[in-house]
Amino acid sequence: MKANWQMVLTCLLALMVLAACGDADDNGTGEEVSNEFGIAGGQIDEFGKPTFDNSGWEEPGGKADAILGRRGLSTSVDGGSLSVWEVRNQWEDTDTAEASKPGMAWGEDSGLTWDEKYQAWVASMKKIDSEGFGETFELVTPFNKTLPAPSLECAEVAMFLRVTFASWYNLPFFMEARDSNGKRLYFGHFGIRTEDGRYGRTPQFRDIYPDHTDKAQDVIDAKIEWPRDEKLAAKSLPGSFDDEQPMLGEDKHAGAYFDEVYLNKRVGHFMRLLLVYFGSVNLADSVNTYNVKAETVSPGDVLLERSGSSGIGHTLVTLQVSEVGQTEIDGETFPLLEAELASGSMPRRQPRWDSPAVSKRYFTDETAGGEEYAKFGGGIKRWRVASSIDGRWTNIVPSISKDDFISSRDLDAVAQRIERFEKVLTELTPEEKLQVIADIIEVQREHLRRLPASCSARIRRENAFKELYELAAELEGWDRAEVDRRYRNLEDYVLAELVYEESKTCCWNSSTAEMFEIIMDHARLEKTDPETGECREVTVFMNRDDEGDGFQVFADFAEATGRGDQWRAWSADETCPQAEIPQATEADHAWTPLCGQ
Question: What pTM did the predictor assign?
């Protein structure tokens, strides 16, 4: 029976979601988040995030009330000791003195709202090579300064971009959640607060952290050097073990990146807390974002893939939307679009910029608000904008987007966007369909190059290969041997799929990129018989019943090649009932053997 390639790719992208923003075998540190701020909760879960719960708010049945949103804090909270930045502009301004100025991606007297300027800014990002696999974007700032995108988790990318823009242009911003005690909680330009005031012992940002915004013009004119905050630059995201920023140099973490992009250093200190405690469950919350029609997708919009009401899911940011023609749907003409997405990962990395082909499969994945999943808040969403309504900060749908709005209560309309995206986004060629799966395989390899012990990445890679075999047979008539000849490499055999429940390798979340190089150097020497030149099967990287911790052959090779200090001993980094099984079990392999190609 021929494969249904749409179903194939849908399944594969569900696998990519797991790799992109959550991986139980790779992130279960059990590390406590510092509770110096008195934040209720704070235990890193198996996905590495201690996120707050959603607000519990449901959009009212009336469209007007849903557009106006939920009343929040009084605007009188602005300007106090907890404040992060001053509000001087409003999102819907178009012709004020500030709004009329030229900016990073718009000209003088543009007539754009700040929300449209945000879209223009995101769309202006240039594609550059990432520090790891693939391409990422270059961050443009208002200070004649550009930087490679930061290494972040997927939901963090979306929040980082929105908060950064809002703070640079003194626009109101807040996100709402509930803490573990059910208390309404607000993170925003006014600080970290509840209705009663300061939340726990969170910082009094205005009083303890510097703001150099008044020096912006001197920085732009190169009259002074970029102001530094050494305390911020030395900080990591609370509880994190993977927020390195290699684009800035060795041993640089998130605080160092924030020090590079904010003259107002308070924003960097605020960002550390927002990113670690808010995630996709909060982005899916209709109090913070709203659903938009498929055909209105715009740069800056957030695509959420969610298969449950809790948990991390996957978050992607729309970077580019291009009109490439027209299409007819039910007798009505619509633009035919190409859209490109980018997403971070766990462990954190620079956002990977995906092609239109891969991006389409994300847009049309069922977990992106499809029929069975619409109730979980997934799909294409846009940021609400903070506005003063009756003297209270309220996240609303701006007037320019009212016609784009879909109520979260209208689950049928939310779910129908999947089919709509199938029609308004360009169709994939057979070559693109194959390339999508090849890209998925390479994503898993890239993951393994950083964390070679990851069993879930090995499983996802092999599941992708199984689908590649089926699709290649349908589209090209290739058998498995031909697919392996074209697409397999040595890494796949060395990091072979293991039976998770029978392999203590799978509990080891602290393997490293340096260890991957040691493992592969061992395999390259082993692959060819030095006397005959014939191919030899390689040693799979997995635990064995030896005199050491199960990995002695690799530890010995590391020592013999002068890299003993780069090899780490095995550790159970998560719950590991299989730790007492001395020898790992390889899964049944569908591949052509390495020496049989």
Answer: 0.81
